[in-house]
Every structure is written in structure tokens, then in C-alpha cells.
Specification:
Strand order of the largest sheet: 3-2-1-4-7-9-8
Radius of gyration: 21 Å
CATH class of the largest domain: Alpha Beta
Number of domains: 2
Helix content: 40-55%
Shape: globular
Largest sheet: 7 strands, mixed
Bound molecules: S-adenosylmethionine
Number of strands: 9
Number of helices: 15
Structural class: alpha/beta
CATH topology of the largest domain: Rossmann fold
Order of helices and strands: HEHEHHHHHHHHEHEHEEHEHEHE
Length: 377
């Protein structure tokens, strides 16, 4: 799944090797800011340790749990056949507007039609914006007919969330959809053609064959709170936000699919009520340093080891590689590596200016990997 700050590439570029070395004497692995869940899944699939993953966003924990909470494969084909059949049954009740030729008028008609679908929450909020009406009706239909079995349901919901992320008519996140302007229309048309059930089925089948060596769990929780559950011989992975804009601004569509509803939305970005969008101290300039200090202090007091990654430059949330290093030195002995990393600075401006974010959306920069061992007293 495309995710701001994903450690997918870094796992092959230094981080994977360091985890392999340090996991040997660890009883448990805590992924404190799990995001796309890629690091938690990597550890769960490769090592006999209990993995615990945390994030403020529900969809992150669903995507993580789809792999880390299961130690057996799922026989996916019969489950998919039944699930698709139930969803088709719902879909056939709707006369969905055609989007063969995309014009401003067609888009307006789609939006007006979607806004009237009170019993289809995803369609009402996002139809004609991030998705075509046909796509959102499929998302609603698949969301309401998820398999009943708890474990399989999580895998199915994760597949649907990831399919929505792949198909959304927006640039890699869902802060603003493409509009039918001269330049963006081809992107909108391409995205709206994507086949939601087909993409969901592919992701579901591939997730079904993956599982953990030992069952773990992902929970919605604040990293600073769960740090007090740590013990000696635990290994914690710390990958906090670097943006002064909350993650929930970029991922509200996925969060809505995870929750199944979002109420009224507003603005071009179709944002749900702020109460439904998690806020992080790590994305508030005046609070990020204190939050990091508190977290590292707690981890060291529990005598746990940690691996921390952070961009080695000034970030829009007020933290920088230098500040992170200095804070960590207060509580730990540090071993440092630096790797070249292509990372996203979407939302790099604290005012959330999309154009500004777009201009320097991807750049090469160094990212620190710090191994933190509690100081001997
Ligand atoms: C840089 S991303 C992590 C990326 C992740 N390591 C990956 O590879 O996909 C930071 C994540 O921290 C989450 N987050 C922000 N504040 C948090 C907090 N106080 N506790 C737990 N998670 C938090 C955000 O929702 C976001 O998913």
C-alpha cells in the first residue's frame, strides 16, 4: 500500500538487516507507529516473535492485523465467491450513472446522484470525487457484506481498504481528489476505470497466503501510552510522523472504509468531522519535542531496546535528525547509520497547502537509523 513514510524500501536498505541482528534476543517486537504495517508484517512473517503493532488510525491496525494476527493461511476462493455474490445482490438495486465520457457535467451529475444515496455512506461521502459512483457502490456493497468470521473479515476489510487506496483518483493519498480540469482529467478518467472487485479479489487472495510465524495483535493506541507496557528484552520500532499536518488529513477515506461510516463531509477534500480524524502530538510543532522526549524516557525506563528511523533534516513538525539524536542521547547509547531514502514530503507545509506539498512531493534525502540501547547505570 502506498503510504507516506513507508519503510518498504528501507527494509531492503539497512533496516531489515538491523532488525535481523537485534531480534535474536528479543521476546517481543513492538511497532509503535505501524502506518502501512509493512514493518510489523515483515517481522511477523520472518521471525518467531510476538509482534504488537499500534497506530492512532483504525485502518492501519486492520491492515496490520490481516497478517500479524493469523498463523494460518486462508482458503480464499470459496470465501471470495460468496462475498462477491452477496455484494452483487446489493449492487443490482442501483441504477448507477455512466462515466464512459468524462466531462464537468458528467462529474457534476455523478456527485449529485451520489449525494442522494443516504443508505450508501461511502457513495454519499466520496462518490463522484475520489471514486466513480460505480466504484463507491461496489465499496459500500463489499463493506456491508464482509465475511462474518472475525479473522477472515479482517483480511477481507484490509483487502478492501488497500483496493480503495490503489483505485482512488488522487495523488497517492486522499487529501484532495483529482478534478475534471484539462490537466487532471486524464488521471481522473484512468482512476475511475479501475475495477474495485477485481483489485479487491487480487489483494484478498495474496493476503490470504501470508501469515505470522507467531500470532500477534495490532491495536488503536497512542505510542506514548503503550510504552509503559514494555519489558526488558522487547525490541521497539519507532517511526513517528515528520509532517506538521496530521496523517488523518491524508488518509480519511481509508479510515471511513475501516469504520464503515463518516457522517457529513466538507470541503474539496470531503473531510469528515474533525472529531473523527485522529490528532497526533507528533504533528503539532509546539508538542512534538516533548512527545518524543516522553516516549524515549519511558522506553529506556522499561529497559527495552529500540530502533528509531527519522529524516536527517528539519521537518515541518518541528523535529529534525539533530533533535531526535540529541533527545535519544539523553536516555540511550546510540549506534547510528544513515541511508539514502526517497521519501514523501506530502503535507510538508504545516498549513496543508496541497500545491506546495505537490511541488516537492518526492525527494531524495538521508534518513537516520538509530539503534538505541538503554544506558548501563
Ligand atoms: C511515518 S508513519 C509510519 C510509517 C510506517 N512505519 C510504515 O512503514 O508504513 C507514522 C504513523 O504514526 C501514526 N501516529 C501518529 N501519532 C501517533 C501516536 N501518538 N501513537 C501511535 N501512532 C501514531 C500515524 O497515524 C502514522 O501512521
Amino acid at each position: 500500500m502506498k503510504y507516506m513514510g513507508s519503510k518498504r524500501l528501507m527494509l531492503k536498505n539497512g533496516l531489515g538487516k538491523l532488525i535481523k541482528k537485534e531480534i535474536v534476543d528479543s521476546n517481543r517486537f513492538f511497532d509503535a507507529f505501524t502506518g502501512s504495517g509493512i514493518v510489523a508484517a515483515h517481522v511477523a512473517e520472518n521471525y518467531e516473535v510476538h509482534v504488537k503493532a499500534f497506530d492512532l488510525q483504525l485502518f492501519s491496525t486492520i491492515v496490520s492485523n490481516a497478517i500479524i494476527s493469523r498463523d494460518e493461511e486462508i482458503e480464499w476462493q470459496p470465501v471470495w465467491n460468496q462475498w462477491e455474490k452477496r455484494a452483487k445482490e446489493i449492487k443490482r438495486h442501483y441504477r448507477i450513472p455512466s462515466t464512459k465520457k468524462i466531462t464537468q457535467r458528467v462529474v457534476d451529475d455523478c456527485r449529485n446522484w451520489a449525494a442522494r444515496q443516504n443508505e450508501l455512506p461511502i457513495t454519499k461521502a466520496y462518490g463522484g470525487h475520489y471514486f466513480s459512483p460505480l466504484q463507491t457502490v461496489w465499496i459500500d456493497a463489499l463493506r456491508t457484506t464482509l465475511p462474518k468470521d472475525k479473522t477472515i473479515r479482517t483480511v477481507a476489510l484490509s483487502a478492501l481498504i488497500q483496493a480503495a487506496s490503489q483505485c482512488a483518483a488522487s495523488p497517492g493519498h486522499t487529501a484532495q481528489p483529482f478534478q475534471p480540469t484539462k490537466t487532471a482529467k486524464p488521471y481522473l478518467a484512468e482512476a475511475w476505470k479501475k475495477d474495485i472487485p477485481h483489485v479487491t479479489k487480487n489483494i484478498f487472495s495474496s493476503l490470504a497466503t501470508r501469515s505470522a510465524k507467531k500470532k500477534g495483535v495490532a491495536e488503536v493506541a497512542d505510542a506514548n501510552k503503550i510504552a509503559s507496557r514494555l519489558k526488558e528484552n522487547d525490541l521497539v520500532f519507532i517511526d513517528p510522523p515528520y509532517s506538521g499536518v496530521h496523517y488523518s488529513r491524508f488518509y480519511h477515506v481509508l479510515e471511513t472504509i475501516a469504520r464503515g461510516k463518516c457522517g457529513d463531509v466538507s470541503g474539496v477534500g470531503r473531510y469528515p468531522d474533525p472529531k473523527l480524524r485522529p490528532r497526533s502530538k507528533y504533528s503539532i510543532i509546539s508538542e512534538s519535542q516533548t512527545a518524543l522526549d516522553e516516549l524515549l524516557k519511558k522506553i529506556s525506563s522499561r529497559k527495552a531496546k529500540a530502533i528509531l528511523t527519522y529524516p536527517d533534516h528539519q521537518c515541518s513538525n518541528g523535529l529534525s535528525g539533530e533533535i531526535v539524536r540529541e533527545t535519544a542521547e539523553k536516555y540511550f547509547s546510540i549506534k547510528e547509520q544513515s541511508v539514502e531514502s526517497k521519501f514523501s514530503s506530502l503535507g510538508g507545509r504545516s498549513n496543508g497547502d496541497q500545491n506546495a506539498a505537490g511541488r516537492d512531493a518526492r525527494r531524495n534525502a538521508n534518513e537516520l537509523i538509530l539503534l538505541l540501547k538503554p544506558k548501563k547505570v
